[in-house]
Amino acid sequence: MKSDWIDLGPLSEFSAEVPVLRKDDAGRRFACVLRGGEVHALDDRCPHQGYPLSQGALRDGVLTCAWHNWKFELASGACTFGGEPVRRYATRIDDGRVQLNRAVDTAAEVRRLVAGLREAVVRDEPARALREGLRLGALGLHRGETGLGSLHLAFEVLARDGAERAEYGFDHGLALLADLCAWVERGRIPAEEAFVVAAHAIGEASTRLGPRGKGHGKVGARSPLARIADFELDEPTKVSEALAAERRDEAEARMRELVEIRGTAGARRALMPFVAQHLYDYGHGAIFLSKALELAERFSSAADEVLAASTVQLAWATADTSLPPFTATRAALARLADLALPGPDGAAAATRPDAAPLEGAERAAFEAEVLAGEQPAVEATVRWLARGAGPLALLGAIGHAAAVRLARFDSAWEARLDAEVGVLDVTHAVTFAEAAAALGREALPREAAQLAVLAAGFVGKLRKADAAAPQASATTAATRARGGGLLQAVEARDVGAALAIARELDAAGRRRAFAELAPFAAFDAAVRPIFTAHAVKTLEALERLESSDPRPDGAYLAALLTHVVPVRRELSARRIAAVAKKFMSDGRPPDGLY
């Protein structure tokens, strides 16, 4: 670090124990205090909101901001009440004159700011987290490296922190972070606003928690050479074995080792056989793995933490399709084991030249079977796979059927007190189908086929959530008189008007609509982070499904509007009480979608 000394004037101008303001020729301001024969210098801008510390009060070596009572130690700049510390500058007295070193030790400053950012997230203080992130960006690191601009490093710290402290592994806050980063890079939402939403979502879920458990250690005390030799032979298989046995610490440690040696691609290959076996946690197994891989690719230095968190989530996950209601799906998966899928087993599903497409009347007939229920859905999927249809083509059709299913959601479910289920559960059919397609592009053909069966069974099983008749979609007289475009109808929470406007859009108009609605989904659609996460990831999944559909229609946008436009009760005290009382009185679980 090069020194950058400037002169602040004669020592005689500094009164003991009295804060004074000094400026440099660039206009930077310093709050200076003569105490104990030494001049202490702090940044004059309070790190809270920038009010001048030089107008504060001094007591026992602590300088207090007059506006909000934040307190700072002169000797260190540490904040003893309030939030983040203030920058302190080195000073000296030379020949009766006070000098100050403006130079900044970048490495030390990075450590200080990262620590402050992480402390803010631990305390779920998103405003403070953003301020620390902006200061980190002001150091000039990673500027322009990605579409995240100067906040790139702050987002990366957020990803690592959320992954380290997620108690049960990868969660909604981290999934939201992946999508918000993508939206910032596309220019849809400002980086600063996205950061606040993501910091709160991650902070709320793990507030006050430290790093997770024992999973940060390595397995055993092997030498690096022995570890790599063992890894080359069987490490990916051992990850799956540890997951299946719920040896969570071991699975997490082995995943860190795998990422270290083979990177994100190695982690994907190790986890794919496990993820393709079952529908986990209402689809979250595949959904979260897909988002974890996106985060790991975007923030390579946090890849070990992010993919370790994804592994932990899978180790805790419930295998839904092992439960009695999914008999038809299990039978279909068993039939796949005997099915001679075309193409070499070592080829990725996306690169198979012999994968037949599914178009026109055939696709419509297949989607109708998927929507008819679990059994017809999985049987049709296996039948088409046997005929040579490509798993990705089937997943595309299943994704469209999932959008139709979401658009048909019966809002009466939201009002029921005996059913512990709501529209968020149905959005998983959409996000699982999209995640299965994303994972399937890099999967082996058999794994992609398994994902297609799981997605079809999931969409079919949710038939119970359909409304008995199509929901009303006519615009209200007030909306017609008011006029305006799609966003205005959405902001007015008028589902009928929004759907009517959406039906008039062509493909290009729908693409613009997804982009236009992104800020609403991120900032206005919901209050609780989990609802915001679902609004964001559902929009992203539906847009991806439409963009990959060779003949897209309005089903994807209609599904989005029926989900994000209505005002929904985000905390149902009556339902929580009713479900608990029911169980205590009759011992029976709440009604569900399957």
UniProtKB/TrEMBL annotation:
<dbReference type="InterPro" id="IPR036922">
    <property type="entry name" value="Rieske_2Fe-2S_sf"/>
</dbReference>
<feature type="domain" description="Rieske">
    <location>
        <begin position="6"/>
        <end position="100"/>
    </location>
</feature>
<keyword id="KW-0408">Iron</keyword>
<keyword id="KW-0479">Metal-binding</keyword>
<comment type="similarity">
    <text>Belongs to the bacterial ring-hydroxylating dioxygenase ferredoxin component family.</text>
</comment>
<keyword id="KW-0411">Iron-sulfur</keyword>
<dbReference type="InterPro" id="IPR017941">
    <property type="entry name" value="Rieske_2Fe-2S"/>
</dbReference>
<protein>
    <submittedName>
        <fullName>Rieske (2Fe-2S) protein</fullName>
    </submittedName>
</protein>
<dbReference type="Pfam" id="PF00355">
    <property type="entry name" value="Rieske"/>
</dbReference>
<keyword id="KW-0001">2Fe-2S</keyword>
